[in-house]
Amino acid sequence: MNRKPIFDAVRKLLGRGFTADEVAAIDRAIDMATGALPANVAPEPPDTPTVPERKAEPRALGAAGEKLIKAWESCGRLRADGKYDAYPDPGSADGKPWTIGWGSTGADIARGTVWTQAQCDARFAQEIQRYAAEVERAIGDAPTSANQFDALVSFHYNTGAIFSASLTTLHKQGKFAQAAAEFGKWIYNNHKPMTGLVKRRAAEAKLYSTP
């Protein structure tokens, strides 16, 4: 930067020359005003822009998994008015847990509970996100295909056992053939094998093993 015009203008206003201290003071003022640095001061490196860390989107149940689950958790007990009645578990001694819609259970579902189709669909959409998140947490960063993930979510939605099953451990170890064989062990309700569970576990194992 050519500072001479500035000094000339100030000198003209003062009607005299500058002392050494005045020259230094004016230089400092110019440096501050323009962001300039003395010759013997190295400029600081520019700040590196901070890029916010992008969080991975949580995995969601795919179309194949939803189709499988809804094939086995079909909305049953349709009433004449188009609504659905809760029904007892067919394999338990006391009928618990009472179920409604797409396999939904819980403290708010008992004998006499009636839902619309919209309620059934909304509850499933809400619950399946939690089950998918639990499966994702259980398997961690283990390599998992979309079909494997969907099969595991279906298994967990029906059994609630993703954190305790040997199936999960084998999957995390990459022993996929052995993991697929584990599905067939989860066919009991109230200590009795259930035909429906045998078929469902076979369907889950098939999806799990499909590339």
TrEMBL record:
Keywords: Antimicrobial, Bacteriolytic enzyme, Glycosidase, Host cytoplasm, Hydrolase. The keyword Hydrolase applies. The keyword Membrane does not apply. Belongs to the glycosyl hydrolase 24 family. SUPFAM superfamilies: Lysozyme-like (SSF53955). GO terms for biological process: cell wall macromolecule catabolic process; defense response to bacterium; killing of cells of another organism; peptidoglycan catabolic process. Pfam families: Phage_lysozyme. Its EC number is 3.2.1.17. It catalyses: Hydrolysis of (1->4)-beta-linkages between N-acetylmuramic acid and N-acetyl-D-glucosamine residues in a peptidoglycan and between N-acetyl-D-glucosamine residues in chitodextrins. InterPro entries: Bacteriophage_GH24, Endolysin_autolysin, Glyco_hydro_24, Lysozyme-like_dom_sf, Lysozyme_dom_sf. This is Lysozyme.
